[in-house]
Write a structure and sequence with these properties.
By secondary structure, this protein is of the alpha/beta class. The chain is built from 8 helices and 14 strands.
């Protein structure tokens, strides 16, 4: 968890109460000394973020990462990722094709076709019953310690029917939370479960989040908020089951691949 006491006050029944704020800082993501993106995020679980971001942005697979060294600097955190030679050469070639780093979402993308890239089919198998959906949502809600302390973060969790919530990560940025979750699954030895479970998101669903989940290889997404039209289209293209506004099994909207749900 990453939060800080702050000189902020909330008025409750005439009394002043000290407020705890979620920590937010600038994160520079660098590969072999070259900056790929600078974004705002919560400076916790940064090794997880490094592995997840590298995978979901198509930069490097887990086995192609040589080392990760987060370094605190005056302006924030320099997240230094060192690649093995073949991945490093591929990254250099990618850098030559891009205009430069951008913020969160579609990092380093310079063309419309790259932003709306075609997604291959996700071949995992996961069927959620109504009870599974309720359990997944409840477990994700109960696991958000940083949100409970600050009220200012998003969460991404991973639920497997019959096993429960496998991992959960939080961040002030919804993309960051998902990337941290991806890295946590990889580094925690859960890669073999990814095709058998569902990603649970507390945020709205945009097309780039669907792209990240498809790259990760999870066959189902459950979101507490609504999806965009492009997100629904991308989920359908990838064969990802998408349940949105899923506060409970009786309040869910199935937008894509309903065969993955038994509601």
């Amino acid at each position: 968890m990453s939060s800080i006491p702050a000189p902020a006050r909330r008025i409750s029944d005439g009394a002043e109460i000290e407020v705890t704020l979620a920590e937010e800082t600038a994160l520079a993501v660098t590969y072999d000394g070259s900056t790929q993106a600078v974004l705002m995020g919560t400076p916790a679980d940064l090794e997880d973020f490094a592995y997840g971001f590298s995978l979901t942005e198509g930069i490097a697979r887990p086995e192609e990462i040589d080392a990760v060294t987060p370094e605190r600097v005056a302006q924030g955190v320099d997240l230094r990722i060192w690649l093995k030679p073949e991945a490093g050469q591929r990254f250099i070639a990618r850098r030559r094709r891009t205009l430069g780093p951008v913020g969160c979402g579609l990092c380093g993308v310079e063309t419309l076709s790259a932003a709306m890239r075609e997604l291959g089919p996700v071949r995992g198998t996961c069927v959620l019953t109504a009870k599974d959906l309720d359990r997944a949502v409840a477990a994700t809600d109960a696991g958000q310690a940083l949100r409970d302390a600050t009220g200012a973060t998003h969460a991404a969790g991973f639920y497997v029917p019959g096993q429960g919530l496998i991992a959960l990560r939080e961040d002030v940025g919804r993309h960051n939370a998902l990337d941290k979750l991806a890295g946590a699954l990889i580094r925690g030895g859960h890669a073999g479960l990814i095709g058998a479970g569902a990603v649970i998101l507390t945020s709205r669903v945009s097309v780039d989040l669907v792209q990240k989940v498809a790259t990760l290889g999870a066959p189902v997404m459950v979101a507490l908020a609504a999806p965009s039209s492009a997100a629904v289209a991308a989920a359908e293209q990838a064969g990802i089951g998408l349940a949105a506004r899923a506060r409970s099994a009786s309040q869910g909207e199935i937008h894509a691949n309903a065969a993955r749900f038994a509601l």
